[in-house]
Each structure stands twice: as C-alpha cells, then as structure tokens.
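# step 3/5: fold
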Amino acid sequence: MIVKKRKVPLINLKLEALLRRIPTTHPKYLLIKENLAKRSSGYLGELSLNYPLSFLDEKEYFIFHDLRFNISDHYFQIDTLVITQKFILIIEVKHITGTLFFDQEFHQLIRTHNGEEAVFPDPITQIKRQMLQLKQWLSDKQIPAIPIVPLVVVSHPNAIIQTSPKHQNINQIVANRYYLSSRINQIERNYPKDMLSSKDIKK
C-alpha cells in the first residue's frame, strides 16, 4: 500500500516557472535548463519504480516516497522506503544512461556515454550512510530493531551495470529496475521472521 505518494519536486516546478519567465538570451538560461533536465530525469527514474512496486502485496508492504528525516540538527532524505513486518527496504534510484562502472576501490560511479567519461558520487556509499542514519532514527523513536536492506536501483533502460571482478557482490546492493521484483522476492526469503508488529508499523 502506498502510504506517501510521490509528488513532482518543488524545485522542478520552480525551475519550470523560472524558464517560462526569463528570455532565452539570459546568460543563465542554459544552466537553468540543464539543471531542470537533470532533475526531471531523476524524477522520471523514480516514477519508473511504480510499476514493479505495484506487484507487492498491499497488505504486507507499506510504501513511502520522498521522505525527509531529522537526526539532531541533521537531515537526510530517502527516495523510497518500503516497510514490512520482516524488514525495511531503502531504495535509491539512479536514472543514468550509458555504461555505469561502480568503482569500489575509490568509491565513485564512472559513467561512459558517447565516448566521454563522467564521475558521480558513489550511490552505494550514499545508501549505506542512509541505512545507518535510519537505524539511528528508529532507535531514537524506540522502534524495535529490524533488518534494513539498502538497494540502489538503476532505472534507465539503456544503462549497462559493471564493476571489477572482485566486487561482483555489489549485485546484492545494486539492481536493474527490471529485476526489482525478483530482488525483493530474494530479500523476503532471507528474512522470513516477523520483527515488527502491526502496531509498530503504524507507529
């Protein structure tokens, strides 16, 4: 069941409004346009998860999109959070085309597209940090300990996922969008025991 629906990010709406108001000759027009295109692509990637997540049992899975948490004076965000009585799943979506090399030696994501390379922050490091932050948040709220599973989902249909031979185990953390349902089924088998009550989930 979708508890918190996904909405168009406010920053996207602001950038769209800004582009409508400034002339195309404005010195920052292209910069704003590129920023909007990047954010729109990310939002499109998040929307692409709606279909595979729709196969989850609505009585057992509670889905929250675009969450923002506070720990002391710090905030962190999660693209999609899936809560069950057995485990919690954190999903970080990356809608990037090209060949994506997850470099776990230097903790970066290297994208090769049309013969050009670009470096992105490592989403594996990012989601592991989110996992630790969420554990702390749950502890602060006195919610019983439950397994938290991190998952980076590459949503672009033309993306090729690669890593070095000695880091092939990243397939436990990184998945193609088309494999998302099967990966969740695997996680279900790994965590067969109920850890939260219905009351805990409502809390």
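# step 4/5: annotate
Residues 29-47 form the longest helix (19 residues).
# step 5/5: archive (pending)
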